[in-house]
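Hey all, sorry for the wall of text incoming. These are the two entities for the joint prediction.
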Amino acid sequence: MRELVILSGKGGTGKTTVAASFAHLAERKVMVDADVDAANLELVLSPQMKEKHEFRGGKVAIVEPALCTACGRCAEVCRFQAVQEKEGEYLIDPIACEGCAVCHYECPVEAIRLEEPVSGHWFISETSYGPLVHAQLRPAQENSGKLVAIVKQTARQLALAQGCDLIIVDGPPGIGCPVIAATAGAHLALLVTEPTVAGVHDLERILSTTAHFGVPALVCINKYDLNPEVSQAIAEDCAARGLSLVGSIPFDKAVTEAMVQGRSVVSHSQGPASQEIERLWEETKRFLDR
Amino acid sequence: MKIAIASGKGGTGKTTVAVSLALSLPQNQVHLLDCDVEAPNAHLFLNPTIQGREEVAILRPSVDETICDLCGRCAEVCQFNAIAVVGEKVVLFPELCHGCGGCKLACPLQAIEEVPHVIGVVEWGSVGEMAFAYGLLNPGEPMPPPIIRRLKAMAQGEKTVIIDVSPGTSCPVVESMRGSDYCLLVTEPTPFGLHDLKLAVEVARELNLPTGVVINRADIGGSGVERYCQEEGLSILMHIPFDRHIAEAYSEGIPLVEAFPDYMLQFRAIYKEMGKQVGP
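and here's what came out:
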């Protein structure tokens, strides 16, 4: 079984546009939306939900006012600025609380208890392109990396059970914890960038991240014709470093039109972006088959 | 006033708005903090003169095996499974450690010391008279919040503090937005933009922040975002149209208000409007 993760560093470069088209083009695969903060693949793949599971990402400390002697030990030991003192009363801000339980263990009168609230859900859905495993972390919750790990693990089991030999993961932006979880165990990363100074800067950061975890990476430039000089510079840089530039997708209004209609570009249009994404898939597949 | 500029979805134009707003106000009264420490971009548009640099570290445990009697109390209290007793050894999983110090406090023999582990850096300086700071999480490090906290501690409170937030809705976003006076959300009128705007609005509400919306590439997509803002009573402060020239200037690292100075008036107007909504 092979696992492809689509990443970018910078947000909004077109990861989901590419992933949705790959869902249409690839055969016998399980799709994963690992952007658990802001999952968008479901807006294009029209999933029918089959299973819904609760996710508890971590604990939250709660002070029992009747027991609290206002000694202030909790505020002293908390490293996350989560304990607030108001007129001699101690309260824990659930949003700042990291769930480390240090205050719970240090409280001399056992006035602090821990709860583990539901912080999101994950789903197994069916789409006309095969199974999709996705999730929604509740806004302002923690531990998206753990949720990404669950979603990916579920996808692997599903792929085994259904005889699929490929998992395609639509990754989150950035380089932090959910990206690391999305990258872990992948065989290949496809990095989608754009020909802007910000795109180039963040491509460098995500390349360092995939290299750190030993995952080979391919590069693709979206809206390459928006600034052909920067695209050329990216291409030369890739060549100099032995990185394969596997696609240059032109700016094409059909991409937004397809999104508005809730479809993938390749199923919506036969235009230039669509054609290049088809070629991009063929190229990526070659590397996956190696 | 502290203004957090966020979006939910990536690539909607947070940095464009943050940089342009900062450049439109009296420069000696602005402090721009780029809190997207995973993929910071504001400095690419501003070319700041860097005057200082500081590494940001979290404290991680180190066990003195000559003292440790393998009682396992550290593993019991650790909520992140970052420390375990395996056979005759204490094993650390540093990438899971949040640096809370719980194991050190819990160890009955004081066999645990904490050692700083560098996860990234903050740099500060100026752009003309504007104060500027940003942070960089080291690739491979999972946790941005300590760097964001360090950046926010540098905020020059007497100035207008503009915070460029990372995309998403989880810890780094909350950490960046917490303690702001106003949340300015930048979106685009596509289904993705709308979906993620709704989530970002929930975060802002969770934090009790007055919220306004900027619609970028306002003429590409549909009317869903406008309708949603109306229904939710969110003020739409500004529309920026899709314009290939804007996109080209962006691609070269030229701030919107430098390429199109007419926008300065609009940014000053939305600054005033935000001030009104925040109140004295």
